[in-house]
Amino acid sequence: MSTTDGKEDSIDLASLTIPERREHWARALEEDNKYFQGMGELRSDASHFCCLGVACDLYDPTRWAEDQGFTSQYYEGRGGMPPESVSEFFGISNQEARILSTHNDSRIPFNKIAKKIRENTNA
């Protein structure tokens, strides 16, 4: 579980409520130049992520593994949807994950996806 957002003034996400974690996730999509939007998988290379891949990275950035022979990376063996631990941590339902993934892969920008995350509970 994430205790840092990679910045000097780290945040213990585990100590936050789910709405606060979701806000942190939305802000990371909008403001953090660490994350660039990728399509089709949670993480396509070192800096290109699906919006759900950003949630995975915030949860625990040490759980990524490279796909042998490819540039994409898997999170706990998953390439397209986050594991249950990440979904529960951020309060992401299966329906919301599918909707957010579709928005992401339809090239809806991160800032608009962040708005959906804030509005939602059903994206």
How is the topology of this model organized?
Layout: H1 18-31, E1 36-37, E2 48-49, H2 51-59, E3 64-66, E4 73-75, H3 84-90, H4 94-105, H5 110-119
Helix pairs in contact: 1-5
State the share of residues found in helices, binned by percent.
Answer: 40-55%
**What is the arithmetic mean of pLDDT?**
87
Write the element-wise H/E pattern from the N-terminal end onward.
Answer: HEEHEEHHH
Please tell me what the overall shape is. globular
Low-confidence stretches: 3-8
What gap, in angstroms, lies between the N and C termini? 24 Å
Instruction: Supply Rg.
Output: 13 Å
Q: Per DSSP, what share of the residues sits in E-state strands of 2 or more residues?
A: 5-15%
Number of H/I helices: 5
What is the total tally of β strands? 4
The biggest sheet amounts to: 2 strands, parallel
Question: Tags for this entry?
Answer:
123 residues; two-stranded antiparallel ribbon; single chain; disordered N terminus; mainly alpha
In short:
Helices cover about 40% and strands about 10% of the residues. With about 120 residues, the protein is mainly alpha-helical. A hairpin with a 6-residue loop joins strand 3 and strand 4.
Explain what you see:
- The protein has 123 residues and is mainly α.
- The chain has one domain (13-119).
- The chain contains five helices and four strands.
- It has helices at 18-31, 51-59, 84-90, 94-105, 110-119, and strands spanning 36-37, 48-49, 64-66, 73-75.
- It has a two-stranded parallel ribbon with strand order 1-2.
- Helix 1 packs antiparallel against helix 5 (110-119).
- It is globular.
- The model is unreliable at 3-8 (pLDDT under 50).
